[in-house]
Amino acid sequence: MYALNPNYTDNSNLELQVCKVLAEVGLPALSVNQANRALAYELWEVLELLPFHDRAEVYRQGLASCSACPPAAAAGQMAVKAFKKVKARLALPDKADKGRKDVVRANANLLSKVSHATPLQVADQVLWQAASFPNAVEPLAEVLKLPNPLTMDVLTYTALFWWGRLGRSKMKEDGANEEDWVSGVADLVGIACCNSKHNFKLHTLLPYLFDELRGGDTPAVLLLRSIIRKMTGVDGPASVDPSQAGLLCCGPVLQAEAIHSMANREEPALQMGRSILLKVLTDGPPEQQLLVPLAVAMAQHLDWSLFTLNTQHLKELAEQHDRVNEICQQYIMMLEHCMLRDRELELRTYAAALPPLHVLLSHYRVHPGIAWMLWRPVVAALEPQLMAKLEAQGLAAAAAGEEGEEGEAEALPEAAAAAAADGGRTAAAAGGVGGEEG
What is the spatial distance between Cα 276 and Cα 23, in angstroms, rounded to a whole number? Predict the structure, then answer.
């Protein structure tokens, strides 16, 4: 605690020493203490004080230190064997089966017991399993409900490491479809973000996705799509079933009903997922919130990817553009539902974070359709006030018109009398002129 005191002047050197001790001593010592949950929590209490990039370096060096230490390496191999036993029993019963909860709890307890001592080795095996067998992601995520916060933080680091690994393509040779390991890792991240007691570190994932989009990594939107789909229940237009596709030809209300998975919308897990996601997006001072910048980054990426994607196939270019456009609409639809229907996001907070429309178009170069989608919830909320104002102006104009008509009616006799008097004087003058000539 003293080493990370913000009032201490030499924090940089002390943090480096703390990171070195944690990587070379703390994590190897943890691996040789089997199933020591208390020690894992004590180690996390120190790691939690460090920023994520320092923790990631600790995990990278810690894995190398465990491999170089024979007892720690042996403990890691035993953890891998224990995980393979859990993996062999991942064929869970049907959800309607009453014994499903007992099977899930037993596997979750076994995986949690293994991960207390060797979170680095278990996290690597979990990601390898998700990347190799995407169909087994759901039962794998089911048993990730009881890990400690250290294991979930290591899983976050391992997922980002797998996602950003150089030399591994994220798209197939046709350029239109992603690799199987990409969908597996994305689904695991999305489910684990809201399916465990200690969630994936969204405070780390979302800024990473924002930076990847700004850097031109189009497949990064696949992670965001999985997070939104699993945490909020809102899906993109391309994923609706045929029975809902007909509703997309109707008005905006029925379109929202078609796109939003209404059957699962009231589940407690989705309600908690929406709350967690919105809390992360609106966390921090206004200039550091990702609520609107994430949508703006995707909207900018739409046109930017057309000119920067290095490909010779028009199909690949169109697929990338459509994918980003779909996920951008999915994200905005999620915000709209949370504001106008679920009331989980205050409209005033959203309007304060949203740039003016002309700034979105001219400064940020956002497509007009996306800019209007961002402003639609604000306009929809202001519509009753605008209609009331227009109605009041219409009534005032009508009242002013009636008063003007009454004034004109009263002025008609006076105008007629004045015209008659002028006519008489004109006639008399004409008669006088005629008499003089005679």
Answer: 31
